[in-house]
Write a structure and sequence with these properties.
Layout: H1 4-12, H2 17-21, E1 27-32, E2 38-43, H3 45-49, H4 57-63, E3 68-75, H5 82-98, E4 108-115, E5 125-132, H6 137-148, E6 157-163, E7 169-177, E8 181-184, E9 188-192, H7 205-208, H8 214-224, H9 229-239, E10 252-256, H10 263-274, E11 277-280, H11 290-294, H12 298-319, E12 325-328, H13 331-342, E13 369-374, H14 377-387, H15 393-400, H16 402-414, E14 421-424, H17 429-443
Parallel strand pairs: 10-12, 10-13, 11-12, 13-14
Antiparallel strand pairs: 1-2, 1-4, 2-9, 3-5, 3-6, 4-5, 6-7, 7-8, 7-9
Helix pairs in contact: 8-9, 8-12, 9-12, 10-17, 13-16, 15-16
The structure holds adenosine-5'-diphosphate (ADP) and deoxycytidine diphosphate (YYY).
Residues 259, 263, 281-282, 305, 308-309, 329-330, 333-334, 337, 392, 394-395 line the site of deoxycytidine diphosphate (YYY).
Length: 448
């Protein structure tokens, strides 16, 4: 490691064009700041050529001295195949708890994404920014030891942020030389970059969480079968469901909404009133594996919920031949929660209305009506508290993170073909029931 004085002298030396050209491909990263805003930066040749606009002071405080920041990232789709994607997602999931232990435990962590500035899903990397307020050498040692423990591909990348005496910001990537020794390579200039038109994760969503058809989700569980027996069990159930479904003539009504908005209460009451079959997604036949998949990385968890919807579709097709069908959650839940989780930042960073990500999958049985129950955050909290302690991890996040809740709600509202019909679920149970039944009568002319 170069002494600090030599390092600063090196950083302050102007880059010759040939040297700049030899640096890594230009890339960008997005950093989630307090308050859920996103700061974007260009790294490498793009940064070196640019003048130095002043960064957001909150971002500068996260990246520059005093203290030291590190970027630890894993490519999302290293081999471009599904197996490599799942390996990469599991690696990141395994690394995250290790970043909260030992000497790394004192670092602040922030979610970061690396991406190619031209858009597209290629080159996307997920990771974290670790901010060591004490700039301790133990932090660097612990991070390099962590990299050493990642022997199989894909291997994470590590970069270190440094400021120079002219207050410019640089990133120095660490590289393994000769397969044995970690060395820092040429510093790359880091400058603020404009926000891209579309959040950088969106082009990747159809492969990583909002699967546009059954086969895309199926492929994910298929590569999980060697280490996750539940994946084989779910695939066997999915494969028993016919690809082309013939639904009955009775109406199919889906009820959606955040947790504790009253879906269970409303679906039971509507099913009673219409003498309808009551189904839910994920269906009972896969619920024994739900916790197993909830503990897996997002790509695997979403594939499970997505395939659960295809299994429910087959139940809907059969039941709708005999009676109306009411369904508690369906594809809109899977998509809205996935979009809200993957798209970092605040509501304004969601893909715009009418983006293809909000379109119903072409191969999934469509309901006649989707009702979205909405209640104020305060009333929702009252209902959660009144219900007792059992919650999923994401529900806890919902409570803690009102931005996440807003992103789920807005994603629900943007869903298309079919879209959601919002119903205010704050009034009494009876009034909410009547509002939903009114919608059913208006929108489902085939109701006997
Ligand atoms: N309209 C309503 N007014 C008051 N409380 C309600 C109403 N609807 C549901 N609840 C109560 O709120 C809690 C959450 O409702 P639930 O139907 O379980 O929601 P979800 O299925 O959406 O999680 C339950 O305790 C339920 O009895
Ligand atoms: N069809 C579905 C159903 C649930 N999910 C996911 C979305 C959230 O992470 C959880 C919420 O489901 P949960 O059953 O806990 O919520 P409720 O209790 O029904 O309100 O499951 C899904 O992705 N797709």
């Amino acid at each position: 490691m170069a002494p600090a004085g030599r390092l600063l002298a090196l950083l302050a030396r102007p880059q010759s064009p040939a040297r700049a050209g030899a640096m890594a491909q230009p890339s960008c990263f997005a950093l989630e700041l307090p308050g859920c805003s996103l700061a974007h930066f260009a790294v490498g040749t793009a940064g070196a050529a640019a003048p130095a606009p002043a960064p957001d002071p909150r971002a500068a405080a996260l990246l520059g001295p005093p203290g030291r920041s590190y970027a630890l990232c894993v490519p999302v789709a290293p081999g471009r195949d599904c197996a490599a994607r799942v390996r990469a997602a599991r690696l990141l999931q395994r690394l995250l708890p290790q970043l909260r232990r030992g000497p790394l435990g004192r670092c602040q962590l922030r979610r970061m994404l690396r991406y190619c500035p031209g858009g597209g899903a290629g080159g996307l990397q997920r990771g974290v920014l670790l901010r060591d307020p004490d700039d301790s050498p133990d932090t660097r040692r612990a991070l390099l030891a962590l990299l050493d423990s990642c022997l199989e591909a894909p291997r994470p990348s590590l970069g270190e942020f440094v400021g120079d005496e002219s207050h410019r910001l640089w990133q120095r990537p660490w590289e393994l030389r000769g397969g044995r020794e970690w060395r820092q390579v040429d510093p790359e200039r880091v400058v603020p970059a404009p926000e891209p038109a579309l959040h950088p994760v969106v082009p990747d969503l159809p492969s990583s969480g909002v699967f546009p058809h059954r086969e895309a989700a199926r492929a994910v569980l298929e590569v999980c079968t060697p280490f996750l027996p539940a994946a084989r069990a779910v695939l066997e159930l999915v494969d028993q469901c016919p690809g082309r479904l013939h639904r009955g003539l009775f109406p199919v009504i889906v009820v959606e909404g955040l947790d504790a908005t009253g879906k269970t209460t409303v679906t039971r009451a509507v099913a009673d009133a219409l003498q309808a079959a009551l189904l839910k997604s994920p269906p009972a036949c896969v619920s024994q594996w739900r916790q197993t998949f909830d503990d897996e990385p997002a790509i695997v968890r979403r594939a499970f919920y997505s395939l659960g919807n295809y299994i429910v579709a087959s139940e809907i097709a059969q039941a709708s031949a005999r009676a109306p069908v009411v369904v508690d959650r369906y594809w809109h839940s899977t998509a809205a929660y996935a979009i809200a989780t993957e798209v970092s930042g605040a509501v304004q960073h969601l893909p715009p209305a009418h983006h293809p990500i909000y379109q119903w999958p072409k191969d999934l049985l469509r309901p006649d009506l989707v009702v979205l129950l909405t209640v104020s955050p305060e009333e929702r909290l009252r209902r959660i508290q009144g219900r007792g302690p059992e919650r999923t991890r994401e529900e806890e996040e919902l409570e803690a993170n009102s931005v996440f809740r807003q992103k789920v709600e807005v994603s629900y509202e943007r869903m298309e073909n079919p879209g959601c019909h919002a119903v205010d679920a704050s009034p009494s149970r009876e009034r909410v029931l009547q509002a939903v039944l009114g919608l059913v009568r208006d929108r489902c002319p085939q109701l006997p």
